[in-house]
Amino acid sequence: MSWGDPASFDLFKSELEQGHSWQSFPALFFRLHGFDVEIPDLTITGPGLNYTHIKTSDIYVDGYPFEVKSLNNDFRMYQRPFVDTVSGWDAKDPKPFGVIFVVRPHGMMAWTPTWLSHTWTVQTATDRVRGFEESFYTVDVSNIWNLSNLVDALKRKRGN
Fold first, then answer.
1. Tens-place pLDDT, residues 6-26
2. DSSP string, 38-88
């Protein structure tokens, strides 16, 4: 089974909807820090999905695109946490400025810049929620940074 299979569509849709709701958490954080934030509407196409190009990101902060990954487990438990599926990430055009991680159980947020994606590795694993094998990009936990670092970087880009 894969995301492209019609049999997995309901689970796929549920996971997208749940993940989309978590995008409001970093959005609020950035708004409180004085940034303009946009969360595009969630658009889900029907079963038989084909990742050819994904043209939107999860949130835009001062116009910069970001992916938001809401996680059931704290990424600090792993040396190389998952960033995204290889198929999903490779379909993103243009690539986001960074990936923001939100740990659902306690709300901690952190990020990794995509300019470090050349350091990512690929790991094949069975997705425990979805029940099928997938290839994932992973990032060394040392390249996941506090959001204050991102706030500072975005303010510098603004000229503040």
1. 666 565 555 655 655 678 899
2. E-PPP----SS---S-B---SEEETTEEEEEEEESS-GGG-SS-EEEEHHH
Cα gap 112→150, rounded to integer Å: 9
Judging by DSSP bridges, how do beta strands 64-71 and 98-103 pair with one another?
parallel
| Predicted structure pTM score | 0.82
Spatial separation of the C-alpha atoms in residues 160 and 124, rounded to whole Å: 42
Domain architecture of the chain: domains with CATH: 6-158 (3.40.1350.10)
The most distant pair of C-alpha atoms in the chain lies apart, rounded to whole Å, by 50
CA distances from 149 to 112, 121, 143 (A): 10, 23, 12
Question: Is the distance from CB of 143 to CB of 121 less than 8 angstroms?
Answer: no
Of 18, 69, 16, 65, which is closest to residue 39 (Cα–Cα)?
65
CB-neighbour burial class of residue 20 (10 A; exposed 0-12, middle 13-18, buried 19+): middle
3-state secondary structure of 129: coil
DSSP classification of residue 96: P
